[in-house]
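Structure in, sequence out. Go:
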């Protein structure tokens, strides 16, 4: 029996294991670790909370992910698993990762949403944002049913966050074998999840040789790191970065050990002299409240160089890439209690000069923030990457109809429901999404699906999206309507790039 037919039969199996206490019969898939029961949700089959690695508890805290443990019988995969440990607001409101549900240190699970009869379908693996300190796979805007409707097998993984996911300390370095990766446990989890996809996704009808990784914000930054990590090579064939920063230098292991030692002191341990056993005995709740940095630490083992250095040296994976940003990324400043005018005041004189005439100090600061942290890095990465593989650059300026006249641009993360074609699944949009918003979502979603299928964004409608070329310097502006722009904000982005010390 060929592999495709086996996958179809396995996923369509309706019998239950004898004596298993399970919900009503649904699709069952046979994985390398055991059988999992999913459910039919609209046009899709959904399997939730599948372990891709062993629980990182006790002695496995701050260790590379270990193989998932086999289970007997049929595992119930019809309900969401807890997200990885993070701070949850006591009043039930969403945290900075827009999440308010249950959390656990035992969290290395993933969700799969698949078409019912997929055979060698393109696979998209989502890495959520949230600063690498918060977030989950189960937000309403991440509703993947329309990806399955359009023939894509979709995967979203939980990965260790905050001080449990990105942490270093001299005691952990000293105990680790010489070649064992350090500090970047959240990135190690992402690599492990991608390896799980390679080994198992054909059982859902997906093609392990046609995998697209995509992420937003910190998830986009993680995609850039994965493109630079040798251990991730061959685990994906395409990449998409949504609002993923891009040229911030990564800290060294030594720097991060110092931060870990300071954290140990704050939690009542003897700083750099704390033992690994003492660190692992710390309450998980205390660690969840601790800050950790976004993205990879250069440990010299997993992360050999920062993503910035990898793209500057053409060391990144030679895969097709989409990268872009939104028109009001500065919306995230409010979460940190910062004003855009303060950002303008701190800019170098040469940078401030090119923003004269772009409104008052607050508006200039907003535009500076957008360009320095998002738009200019995205353009630079597209230009660097275009030297070895196709790249497509975008700017997302389509304002949902209900936000027009209310917001100065498209807020950070607002493109996500358009990418997922899930504008009607987002709770606070239910009363506001209108037909133009749904049409825009269908259009944007079609670009992402085509890229996953073909390796190029052949969108379902004009204009054609040209690959990036530094000379013509073009991008697709997801406006109303979409249009190709050349040399978009060139003076401002050039000034930001020069201030960052990066060549064209």
């Amino acid at each position: 029996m060929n592999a495709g037919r086996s996958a179809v039969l396995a996923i369509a199996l309706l019998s239950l294991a004898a004596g298993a206490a399970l919900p009503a019969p649904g699709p069952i898939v046979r994985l390398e670790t055991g059988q999992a029961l999913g459910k039919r949700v609209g046009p899709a089959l959904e399997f939730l909370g599948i372990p891709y690695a062993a629980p990182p508890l006790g002695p496995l805290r701050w260790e590379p992910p270990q193989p998932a443990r086999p289970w007997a019988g049929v595992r119930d995969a019809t309900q969401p698993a807890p997200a990885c440990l993070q701070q949850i607001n006591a009043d039930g409101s969403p945290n900075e990762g827009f999440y308010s549900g249950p959390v656990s240190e035992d969290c290395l699970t993933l969700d799969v949403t698949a078409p019912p009869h997929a055979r060698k379908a393109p696979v998209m693996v989502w890495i959520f944002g949230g600063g690498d300190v918060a977030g989950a796979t189960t937000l309403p805007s991440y509703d993947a049913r329309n990806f399955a409707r359009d023939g894509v097998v979709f995967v979203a993984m939980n990965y260790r966050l905050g001080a449990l996911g990105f942490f270093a300390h001299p005691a952990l370095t000293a105990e680790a074998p010489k070649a064992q990766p350090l500090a970047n446990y959240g990135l190690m989890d992402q690599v492990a999840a991608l390896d799980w996809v390679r080994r198992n996704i054909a059982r859902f009808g997906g093609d392990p040789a046609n995998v697209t990784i995509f992420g937003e914000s910190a998830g986009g930054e993680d995609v850039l790191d994965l493109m630079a990590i040798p251990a991730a090579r061959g685990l994906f064939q395409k990449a998409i970065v949504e609002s993923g920063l891009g040229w911030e230098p990564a800290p060294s292991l030594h720097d991060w050990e110092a931060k870990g030692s300071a954290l140990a002191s704050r939690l009542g341990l003897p700083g750099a002299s704390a033992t690994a056993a003492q660190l692992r005995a710390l309450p998980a709740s205390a660690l969840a409240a601790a800050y950790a940095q976004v993205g990879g630490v250069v440990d010299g083992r997993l992360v050999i160089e920062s993503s910035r250095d990898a793209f500057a040296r053409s060391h990144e994976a030679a895969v097709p890439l989409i990268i872009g940003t939104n028109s009001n990324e500065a919306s995230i400043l409010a979460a940190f209690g910062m004003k855009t005018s303060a950002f303008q005041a701190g800019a170098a004189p040469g940078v401030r000069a090119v923003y004269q005439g772009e409104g008052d100090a607050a508006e200039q600061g907003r535009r500076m923030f957008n360009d320095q942290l998002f738009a200019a890095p995205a353009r630079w990465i597209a230009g660097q990457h275009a030297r070895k593989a196709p790249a497509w650059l975008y700017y997302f300026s389509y304002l949902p109809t209900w936000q027009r006249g209310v917001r100065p641009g498209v807020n950070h993360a607002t493109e996500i429901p358009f990418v997922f074609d899930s504008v009607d699944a987002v709770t606070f949009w239910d009363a506001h999404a209108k037909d133009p918003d749904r049409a825009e979502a269908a259009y944007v979603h079609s670009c992402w699906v085509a890229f996953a299928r073909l390796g190029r964004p052949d969108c379902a409608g004009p204009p054609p999206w040209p690959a990036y070329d530094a000379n013509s310097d073009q991008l697709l502006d997801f406006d109303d309507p979409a249009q190709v722009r050349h040399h978009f904000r060139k003076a401002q982005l050039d000034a930001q790039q020069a201030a960052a010390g990066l060549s064209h």
